[in-house]
Every structure is written in structure tokens, then in C-alpha cells.
Amino acid sequence: MEYNTNREQISIREYGRNIQKMIEYCMSLEDKEQRTLTAYAIVKVMSQMNSQASKELDADHKFWDHLHIISGFNLDIEAPYPTPERDVVSKKPERMGYNNNKMNYPHYGKNIEKVISAVVDMDEEDQKEAVILAIANYLKKSYLNWNRDSVNDETILKHLDKLSDGKLELEEGATLISTSEALSNPRKQKNIINKKVSNFKYSKKRKRK
User: Fold this and answer.
1) Quick one: three-class SS letters along the chain?
2) pTM of whole model > 0.85?
3) CB neighbour list of residue 109: distance below 8 Å, 6 or more residues apart
4) What is the pLDDT of residue 46?
């Protein structure tokens, strides 16, 4: 009995050993025209085995490249595409560097820092105040999702101050959502936050009158 551990290693596992044997047989043929016809038949089988991959762009080119790779780049045939270069195929991808952008509070995420940066440059004061309140409520919600313990509003406001470099602060009279509201289901949270922002904007209008 022949065990897989004693057999030649499969070049591309997704095609299995049978395809590899077919390609080895193709290489053993002395007539180039016969090798070419056999190679076309093998590529057709490869595409049938990978029906999903056959729908991709340049799928046919990919199968021919795999044919050459499995053959060890030793298959002399009239292929529709040039033989891929061994060095290019075996070349390891360049190492990707880590993102070194330091975040003051990772649990809030990078996007909120971008939002805060954009709000700092807003000119419309009434709208800006409402957005700052919405951001502060979002920070409280995110904090509690990360740490289920209660958090006081002073901590959230300190974080807002730090994230905005001291350029954003809540107006007097603005209140944040409670801990229980922040931990409620997302749809309810959205309604609560929208209601608090609307009430705050309405109270600001009444004070101006």
C-alpha cells in the first residue's frame, strides 16, 4: 500500500494528485503537438474542478499558470499564454508594516477621531452644539460597550476634551444619556440620543427668544 507521505508532494493542493499525475503524463509525451492537446484537455478539467474560480476575471490565464507551476515549469507546449517566471511566482510578498498611528483611546476607534476633527472646523454654531452632544453620547455608549461598568459624565467630557485638543465642549444645560439608556438596544439608543439632541436644540431656541 502506498501512503501519501511517501508520494511526491502536491504542488497545488486544490487540484489534487490526479491532476498532477495527468500533467506528469503530459510531460512524458514525446510529440509537442500531442502534449499541447493534452494540456488543453487538462486545463479544461481544472476549470471544471474549480467552477467558482472559472467565473473570475482572467480565470483561463490563471489555470494555464497553475498548469506550468505544477509541471515545475518544464512543460514544453504551445500555450495561449507565456510561461510564468519561476522567480516571480515563488517570490514572497513584501512585508506590510503595522499602522503606527497612535490613538488616545483605542476603544473609541479611529473614525470618531476623524469625526471630531471635522466638527472642530464647523462654522454653524447651532448645528455644531447638537453634533458635539451627539458625539459625547456616542463616546459614553462606546465606553460602556467596552467596559460594562458605570462611567460618570465627567470622564466622558475629559475624553472629549482630550480627543478634540480642548476645542470641543458641551454647552451649559446639555445632559448625556444615562448608563441604562446607553446599554439599551441600538434602535432604542438611537431614538434616545436623537430625542435628547432635539430637546437640547429646542431649549437653546427658547432661551434666545
Assistant:
1) CCCHHHCCCCCCHHHHHHHHHHHHHHHHCCCHHHHHHHHHHHHHHHHHHCCCHHHCCCHHHHHHHHHHHHCCCCCCCCCCCCCCCHHHHHCCCCCCCCCCCCCCCHHHCHHHHHHHHHHHCCCCHHHHHHHHHHHHHHHHHHHHHHCCCCCCHHHHHHHHHHHCCCCCCCCCCCCCCCHHHHCCCHHHHHHHHHHHHHHHHHHHHHHHC
2) no
3) 103, 142
4) 92
Of residues 123 and 190, the one with the higher pLDDT is 123
CA distance 9 to 12: 9
Radius of gyration, CA atoms only, the chain: 32
Alpha-carbon span 20 to 2, nearest angstrom: 16
- The amino acid occupying position 94 is E
**What is the rounded CA–CA span in Å between residue 107 and residue 166?**
20
Q: What percent of the chain has pLDDT over 90?
A: 33
What pLDDT, on the 0 to 100 scale, is given for residue 183?
77
Task: Label residue 74 exposed, middle or buried (CB < 10 Å: 0-12, 13-18, 19+).
Answer: exposed
Q: pLDDT tens, 71-119?
A: 999 999 999 999 988 877 777 777 777 666 677 788 888 888 888 989 8
For 107, other C-beta atoms within 10 Å of its C-beta total 12
